[in-house]
Amino acid sequence: MENIMNYLWVFLISMVPLIELRGAIPVAYTIKATDPSFNLLLGYIVIAVGNMIPVPIIFFFARKVLEWGADKPVIGGFFSFCLRKGHKGGEKLKSKAGRGLFVALMLFVGIPLPGTGAWTGTLAASILDMDFKESITAVICGVALAGVIVGVICTLGFGAWLGIAS
Fold it and tell me: Which one, 65, 76, 100, 146, has the greatest CB density within 10 A?
């Protein structure tokens, strides 16, 4: 039962905005260090699925919520700011990326830095009116790239830490 809870834990962490896969993978490595029966490959799959579950919801509804709230008294200013900022950033990305918008979105999601990731990348794709299939594919590729990068960093980091500790 404890093992299932570990997978559920990393699954839930991977769904949290700003933390996402980038935070869930180090947690999975920490769990593996204390519980040898934890399967990292299965953990990666669970984390990737958890990270992708909110993506279609964000793509189809986040922009609509922002547009709905843009003229509301308390939240209108912030929602309008988000729409303007997203549109301006999206147009800038479009002009620089040109036909390479798919690759630009994939790299934006795939580079594991704060403020990038599946949530932000999907919101940007929605604001840019990108094709759903193209943007989801770019986000999936970006999540996979981020998973590899964070996994390598964790492997090197945990390996160095274990080497120093022993």
Answer: 146
CB-based contact 166:41 (threshold 8 Å): no
| Residue 146 to residues 23, 83, 149, 150, 163, Cα–Cα distance (Å) | 11, 26, 5, 6, 25
Residue among 68, 92, 91, 90 at smallest CA distance from 79 = 68
Q: Could you write out the DSSP letters of every residue in 133-145?
A: HHHHHHHHHHHHH
Spans of all domains in the chain: 54-145
pLDDT tens figures, 146-161? 999 999 999 887 655 5
- Per-residue CA distances from 3 to 24, 31, 42, 154 (Å): 15, 10, 12, 21
